[in-house]
Design brief:
This protein is about 40% helix and about 25% strand. The relative contact order is 0.13. It starts with a helix and ends in an 8-residue tail after the last helix. The chain has helices at about 5-20, 20-30, 30-45, 60-90, 105-120, 170-175, 225-235, 245-255, 285-295, 305-315; strands spanning about 50-55, 60, 95-100, 125-130, 145-150, 155-170, 190-195, 200-205, 205-210, 210-215, 220-225, 240-245, 260, 265-275.
């Protein structure tokens, strides 16, 4: 049914309710002439006369009475549906579909989700962790996170912070094997490499030399497609790893990991949050975005400045071989 018919039916029922086409037109914010034309067009499409009308009076025809009785329940149901949607838009409850990379992201995402759900227990998160780049529309995403470059056009994007890649080792590894003093020495150390979960490709280490990011292929002592497993292997002292600041920063601050070759740490990739137009978002989506930005913008918990990196690296220097 054309939308014009819905509007004409609304005009018809409003005119009966108010006793005047002119008053119905005023209630709908249209001119009396437009309301009268809409009713005439509706009658023409139906092939019956719905109203007896003069300049001073209005009355239902037999067909008009039948039409009114048939349409009123449907219009009332439609109005209730509209009211429900409008009220739900302001309610912080209901499903919240989130996508985020699996790589190193759980330590960042879970505290955020935990806090949000404690404040809004009516929200039902549907979280997908996947390093593959999906289709924002097809996946029906409310809020997404991405590491690297900004998402495709058609979504609103905000950069949260730069993601560091830092060469790390546990004190136990350094005690057993020493630590590299230069990039060239990495090949003689026990190194871990990360295998992309989507493609299976072994990713090179990305290091910075004189402001340029270079790729370094290393013979792996350990390879894995799981960032948490790689972090545990480094923590256990089995290998040196190139870890993201998302995983490494808290462990470096606690002294459980030591950053190495800190002058070659990179921060050329960023963490982004993306979402659809804020104007049409339910309150639960807007509230989660606001909390994510409040907690994550700047990434203070997941990045280390130059002074912090240098101080942490200095801890192993007195005992190095």
């Amino acid at each position: 049914m054309p939308i014009s018919d819905f509007r004409a039916i609304e005009t018809f029922t409003k005119a009966i309710e108010l006793g005047s086409i002119r008053r119905a037109a005023a209630a709908q914010g249209v001119s009396p002439q437009a309301a009268s034309q809409a009713l005439a067009a509706l009658e023409q499409r139906l092939g019956v006369r719905l109203l007896h009308r003069t300049t001073r009076s209005l009355a239902l025809t037999h067909e008009g009475q039948q039409f009114l009785e048939a349409t009123q329940p449907a219009l009332a149901a439609l109005e209730r549906a509209v009211d429900r949607v409008r009220s739900a838009k302001g309610e912080i409850a209901g499903p919240l579909r989130i996508v985020a990379p699996k790589y190193s992201f759980l330590p960042l995402l879970w505290p955020l989700l935990d806090e949000f759900c404690r404040h809004h227990p009516g929200v039902q998160p549907d979280v997908k962790l996947d390093d593959r780049i999906g289709d924002w529309v097809q996946d029906r995403v409310d809020v997404g996170f991405r590491i690297g470059y900004a998402p495709e056009e058609g979504v609103a994007v905000r950069r949260l912070f730069a993601m560091q890649l830092i060469v790390c080792a546990a004190p136990a590894y350094i005690a057993a094997h020493g630590a590299p003093n230069a990039i060239e020495q990495l090949a003689s150390h026990r190194c871990s490499v990360f295998r992309h979960p989507g493609t299976g490709r072994v990713l090179p280490w990305l290091l910075k030399i004189n402001g340029e990011v270079i790729s370094l292929d290393l013979p792996p002592t350990l390879s894995t497609n799981d960032a948490q497993l790689e972090t545990e292997a480094v923590l256990s002292g089995h290998v040196i790893g190139l870890l993201s600041g998302l995983s490494a920063a808290p462990l470096i601050r606690s002294g459980r990991l030591i950053p190495l070759l800190v002058q070659h740490a990179t921060d050329h990739m960023s963490v982004h949050i993306y979402y659809g137009s804020r104007a049409a978002q339910p309150a639960r989506v807007r509230s989660f975005i606001d909390l994510a930005v409040e907690r994550l913008a700047g990434g203070a918990d997941y990045t280390l400045n130059v002074r912090e990196l240098a101080a942490a690296e200095a801890k192993w220097r007195p005992g190095r071989e």
